[in-house]
Each structure stands twice: as structure tokens, then as C-alpha cells.
């Protein structure tokens, strides 16, 4: 970066004072709200996060109310946001803060990081925004901005570069208003120094930027080439008994933990969908099913893989279902589906049942 850190901080903060979007979590220094916003906005667009943030706070207005909440009630508020471990960890962290710190978040990043689900990024956000500590925050936006400011010639997803980026951010974070500075860096990345075609003409820190002066802004930051995303074909059984369908709850730990789903699983190589439905229901529920008509073929993308859900109506011809891989099973009528938290992929066909 050209010129000194001071001048850079000043230019960025001046821009932020005028241009910052008026978002509800920017109007507060309440650690609980800062914490919620930071956790919720990871992997989530701001417009979507906004709706969830307000709704979550209406249901759990204080740390205490979250600490005392039932896990299902918390997951229900998180339904559709994905990465459900975040919600379960928030509830556990809230309980720990109540228990160990009398309901007040610790202000040191080191202690914050000892709470479940709070990593370096979230600890930095709470410490700098809620407690005015001069610690950095490095998210995807900040990485991109820093890599361009310094015209870094190493891939930003490499651990060594990541370490360097944190050091660089720490050196740039001012002792005064570190929270505003950190938010300004993220805002710059989200609105001006965007991934494709950065808006350098409108950039408040253009004169400090090495990438701009070398005309490298469109080719930075560098990344290691991506591997192909795996794809899985899934057989999903909509098992009906009268007006009700059978759903199971996934174990709390692990992928989509604690959410409800329709029985089924991966179609094995060389297996057809009907055979997969029969096998999965036998293995996971201990029943024999007869597959009926197709309900839907739904595609859904998670971060590390994609799935195609082949959903078939099924009826039980032998046995009584028991939870062999789920923690519990329930028969539920479609008008009660909304009382259960389902993964997003399931939402794409629920209305067809
Ligand atoms: S000048 Fe362009 S590349 Fe440099 S920080 Fe600003 S928007 Fe990003």
C-alpha cells in the first residue's frame, strides 16, 4: 500500500461516516446483538440476514432468553439460513456466558474465542465493535481489499497468505474507533472493492492502492484453482399413512444436525431409485416400503456438494418404523410441517405433499 496507514484510515473512515448503510446492527454496541449479526451474516446476504436478524431478536430479545431456549425453537428461527451448527453453538455460548460471566460477554478476544462457535473473526468483531478493542476482523471482503491494496502476488486462500492478511489487518487497525474501521473495510469490500469489476473510480482509498496503480485490480486477488463440486443422487421417501407423512430428526451433531427430514439416502452406484428407496427405508427405519408415484425431482447446492433429491410417495407394507439413524420419528400432517425445522432442500417439495 502506498502512503501511510494514518492517511489511509482517515480516508476510509470519512467515507464510511457518509456512506455506511443504515443497518440495525450498526446502531448498537450491545455485544449480544453484534454477536448475533456477525454469526448470522456469515455465508448470508445482508438483505436476507436483515429479515432473520429482526425476527430472531423478536423471539430471543436477550442473551438470557436465548440461553434458556429449547434447541428446536432456536433452529426454527434459523430455518433456511443453513449452517445450523451456528444456531446450536449460539445457544450453547449464550448459556455459557450466563453461567460463567454472569450474562456479560467477556471483552477480550482470547476469552471470546473459548466460547463455542466463536472463531478469530467473530471474536474480533465483538471485541472491536462492542468493546472498542483494537483487534482486526478479516472476512472474505477484507481479504480481497487487503490483497488489492498491497497487490499481493500469492493466493489468498493459502494458510500462509491468510496469516499474512491477519497481520496486515492488525497493523492497519487504529486504536481509536477500531469497530468503525473494521466495518468500513468490510463495507468497502461489499460495495466498492467488489469481486468482479471493482468500482475504483468511486473508491475512497484509490490513491493508496497498489493494484489500482499497477492496473491489476481485475486480476487480483489470486486464488488456487477450485476442485469440481461432487454431486449425489438421493432417494427420498414420502411415506404416507392416512393424512400424515413420516419424518425423522437428524442427530444434533454433524451436518444439518437437529433438523427434520424425510427418510432416504444416497443412491448407490448401479442401484435404481426404487431399490434405493426400499434399501434405505429398511436400513434406517426397519420397514419394507412399496414406492409409488414421483412427487418431485429437486436440485439443491450445499457449499461442498450438490444433491438431486428424487422424492417418491411410498407406503409401508411390512414393519413398524423405528429410528435407527434418526433420534426420533414423527407422523405429521402437511399443515403442521411449518412447526418443524427442515433443511432447505426439503422445502422445495413440501408444498407438493
Ligand atoms: S482502488 Fe479499486 S482495487 Fe483498490 S481498493 Fe479501491 S476499489 Fe479496490
What does it look like?
The protein is of the alpha+beta class and 353 residues long. 42% of the residues lie in helices and 15% in strands. Strands 1, 2, 3, 4, 5, 6 and 7 form a 7-stranded mixed sheet that branches. Strand 5 and strand 6 (306-318) form a beta hairpin. Helix 1 (5-19) packs across helix 11 (178-191) and helix 9 packs across helix 10. The longest helix has 17 residues, at 85-101. The radius of gyration is 24 Å and the shape is elongated. The structure holds iron/sulfur cluster (SF4).
What distinguishing features does this structure have?
Endonuclease III, domain 1; binds iron/sulfur cluster; Nucleoside Triphosphate Pyrophosphohydrolase; alpha+beta; 353 residues
Overall structural domain count = 2
Evaluate the radius of gyration.
Answer: 24 Å
For CATH, the homologous superfamily of the largest domain is named as Hypothetical protein, domain 2
Low-confidence stretches: none
- Determine the N-to-C terminus distance: 58 Å
Q: What would the CATH topology of the largest domain be?
A: Endonuclease III, domain 1
Please report the number of helical segments: 14
Order of helices and strands: HHHHHHHHHHHHEEEEHEEEH
Largest sheet: 7 strands, mixed
- Overall, the morphology is elongated
Bound molecules: iron/sulfur cluster
* CATH architecture annotation name of the largest domain: Orthogonal Bundle
- Tell me the fraction of residues in β-strands, as a range: 15-25%
Percent helix among the residues?
Answer: 40-55%
| Overall average pLDDT | 94
Q: What is the number of beta strands?
A: 7
Pairing-aware structural class of the strands and helices? Answer: alpha+beta
**CATH class term of the largest domain:** Mainly Alpha
Amino acid at each position: 500500500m502506498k502512503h501511510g496507514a494514518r492517511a489511509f484510515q482517515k480516508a476510509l473512515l470519512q467515507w464510511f461516516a457518509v456512506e455506511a448503510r443504515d443497518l440495525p446492527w450498526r446502531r448498537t454496541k450491545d455485544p449480544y446483538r453484534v454477536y448475533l449479526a456477525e454469526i448470522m451474516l456469515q455465508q448470508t446476504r445482508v438483505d436476507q440476514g436483515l429479515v432473520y436478524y429482526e425476527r430472531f431478536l423478536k423471539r430471543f430479545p436477550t442473551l438470557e432468553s436465548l440461553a434458556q431456549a429449547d434447541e428446536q425453537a432456536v433452529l426454527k428461527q434459523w430455518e433456511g439460513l443453513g449452517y445450523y451448527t451456528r444456531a446450536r453453538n449460539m445457544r450453547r455460548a449464550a448459556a455459557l456466558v450466563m453461567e460463567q460471566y454472569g450474562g456479560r460477554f467477556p471483552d477480550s478476544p482470547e476469552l471470546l474465542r473459548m466460547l463455542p462457535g466463536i472463531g478469530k473473526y467473530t471474536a474480533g468483531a465483538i471485541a472491536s465493535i462492542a468493546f472498542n478493542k483494537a483487534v482486526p476482523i478479516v472476512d472474505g471482503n477484507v481479504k480481497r481489499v487487503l490483497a488489492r491494496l498491497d497487490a499481493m502476488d500469492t493466493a489468498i486462500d493459502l494458510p500462509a497468505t491468510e496469516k499474512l492478511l491477519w497481520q496486515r489487518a492488525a497493523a492497519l487497525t487504529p486504536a481509536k474507533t477500531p469497530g468503525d474501521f473494521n466495518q468500513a473495510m468490510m463495507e468497502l469490500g461489499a460495495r466498492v472493492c467488489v469481486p468482479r469489476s471493482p468500482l475504483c473510480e468511486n473508491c475512497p482509498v484509490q490513491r493508496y492502492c497498489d493494484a489500482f496503480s499497477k492496473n491489476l485490480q481485475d486480476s487480483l486477488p489470486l486464488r488456487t484453482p477450485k476442485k469440481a463440486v461432487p454431486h449425489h443422487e438421493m432417494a427420498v421417501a414420502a411415506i404416507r399413512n392416512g393424512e400424515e407423512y413420516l419424518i425423522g430428526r437428524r442427530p444434533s451433531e454433524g451436518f444439518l444436525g437437529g433438523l427434520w427430514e424425510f427418510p432416504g439416502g444416497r443412491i448407490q452406484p448401479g442401484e435404481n431409485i426404487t431399490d434405493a428407496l426400499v434399501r434405505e427405508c429398511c436400513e434406517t427405519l426397519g420397514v419394507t416400503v412399496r414406492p409409488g408415484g414421483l412427487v418431485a425431482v429437486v436440485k439443491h447446492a450445499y457449499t461442498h456438494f450438490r444433491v438431486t433429491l428424487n422424492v417418491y410417495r411410498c407406503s409401508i407394507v411390512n414393519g413398524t418404523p423405528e429410528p435407527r439413524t434418526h433420534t426420533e420419528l414423527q407422523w405429521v400432517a402437511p399443515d403442521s410441517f411449518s412447526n418443524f425445522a427442515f433443511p432447505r432442500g426439503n422445502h422445495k417439495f413440501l408444498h407438493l405433499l
